[in-house]
């Protein structure tokens, strides 16, 4: 990871916070949350395509790092929460108001887990070599 990717993830997080607090602006809320989900799914592909993972994970032995696996597990939890959130969100769009509390609780969980993903990702930022 680089500092730029962490800053991009943080910027998307700020947008998610805004969308969380303005759910009544439905077009903004849905587009920001869907965009954040796409961003989070695309980020690993971007990192894989632009970083030398073989060197870092295999040669430098980071594959057995507790921090790396914590980050990975948190990311999987985030993806699972996204799937559940989309399912409940679709119920809300169909008019099932009983799903509102569940949708809000999942939203809070997503914000918490995503903050932890960003934090662990920031800890994984590779330092540039000393000159």
How would you describe this protein?
By secondary structure, the chain is an all-alpha fold. Helices cover 79% and strands 0% of the residues. It has five helices and no strands. Helix 4 (66-93) runs antiparallel to helix 5. It is elongated.
The total count of helices amounts to: 5
In the predicted model, the low-confidence regions spanning at least 5 consecutive residues are none
**Can you write the helix and strand succession as a string?**
HHHHH
Structural class: mainly alpha
> How large is the share of residues in beta strands?
under 5%
Mind describing the biggest β-sheet?
Answer: none
Radius of gyration: 17 Å
Shape: elongated
**Which range best describes the helical content: under 10%, 10-25%, 25-40%, 40-55%, 55-70% or over 70%?**
over 70%
Q: Total strand count, please?
A: 0
Distance between the termini: 20 Å
**Mean pLDDT rating:** 91
Element layout with pairings:
Elements: H1 3-21, H2 26-50, H3 53-59, H4 66-93, H5 100-123
Helix pairs in contact: 1-2, 1-5, 4-5
Structure, briefly:
The chain is mainly α and 131 residues long. It is 79% helix and 0% strand. The protein contains five helices and no strands.
Protein traits:
131 residues; mainly alpha; 5 helices; 79% helix
């Amino acid at each position: 990871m680089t500092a730029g990717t962490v800053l991009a993830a943080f910027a998307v997080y700020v947008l998610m916070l805004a969308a969380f607090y303005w759910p009544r602006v439905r077009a903004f809320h849905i587009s920001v949350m869907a965009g954040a989900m796409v961003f989070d799914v695309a980020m690993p592909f971007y990192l894989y395509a632009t970083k030398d993972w073989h060197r870092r994970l295999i040669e430098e032995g980071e594959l057995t790092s507790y921090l790396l696996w914590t980050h990975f597990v948190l990311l999987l939890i985030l993806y699972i929460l996204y799937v559940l959130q989309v399912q409940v969100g679709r119920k809300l769009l169909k008019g099932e108001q009983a799903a509102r509390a569940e949708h809000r609780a999942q939203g809070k969980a997503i914000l918490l887990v995503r903050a932890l993903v960003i934090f662990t990702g920031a800890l994984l930022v590779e330092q540039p070599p000393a000159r």
